[in-house]
Design brief:
- It contains 7 helices and 8 strands.
- With 195 residues, the protein is an alpha/beta fold.
- It has a single domain, classed as Rossmann fold (3-Layer(aba) Sandwich), CATH 3.40.50.150.
- Strands 3-2-1-4-5-8-6-7 form an 8-stranded mixed β-sheet, sandwiched between helices.
- The relative contact order is 0.15.
């Protein structure tokens, strides 16, 4: 279990839960959750090579674009819907989060924090698009469409009447507890609709 974000998510997800992983990539997180938490997991992924990797691991994954909606899933059909490192890559993040909240009892959202201090300093001093360990892409080859920060996401939740049940801020191998918008490379939020 090398990735701290995966470790944290595995601690959040209750054993035996039904999980939908949106933008599941090569299935590493689903494989961990199935093995450690004994969840019933399903993934949705757009990249065919990553789908093949999931299938080789024996994971249940569908080829699909989460931007196209999740209308085929009934309300509250999953205990957890996970958007880990995929939300910033979708075209309409607001719609995807709304759909995730509709079909999941809880939603786990993980994303790189674009307000991380080395990113800010690179932009300020060099006048160049930030490149860090959590943001390793140049401006012309990045999959990221939305450059959000921890503060941006909190504001979004207030605006959309979404409850933040818990938040985890990390930087490589440790959790950040002080000034996370400046010092954390990534954030993980557990959210749900307000009743």
């Amino acid at each position: 279990m090398d990735r701290l974000d995966h470790k944290i998510i595995s601690q959040i997800v209750e054993p035996g839960s039904h999980v939908l992983d949106l933008g599941c990539g090569n299935g590493e997180l689903m494989q961990l959750l199935k093995g450690k938490n004994h969840v019933k997991a399903q993934g949705i992924e757009l990249d065919e090579k990553k789908i093949y990797s999931c299938v080789e691991k024996g994971l249940n994954v569908f080829h699909g674009n989460i931007d196209g909606g999740l209308i085929e899933y009934p309300d509250k059909s999953f205990d957890y819907v996970i958007l880990n490192q995929s939300m910033q890559e979708v075209k309409n993040a607001g719609v995807v989060i709304k759909e995730a909240l509709r079909i999941g009892k809880m939603v786990i959202v993980g994303f790189p924090n674009f307000a991380y201090i080395p990113a800010r300093l690179r932009l300020f001093f060099k006048g160049k698009t930030p490149i860090t360990t959590s943001l390793p892409y140049r401006w012309h080859d990045t999959p990221n469409l939305h450059f959000l920060t921890i503060s941006d996401f909190k504001d979004f939740c207030v605006e959309k009447n979404i409850d933040i049940l818990n938040a985890y801020y990390i930087n490589r191998e440790k959790r950040i507890r002080f000034n996370p918008n400046l010092l954390a490379t990534e954030a993980i939020f557990v959210i749900k609709n307000k009743n």
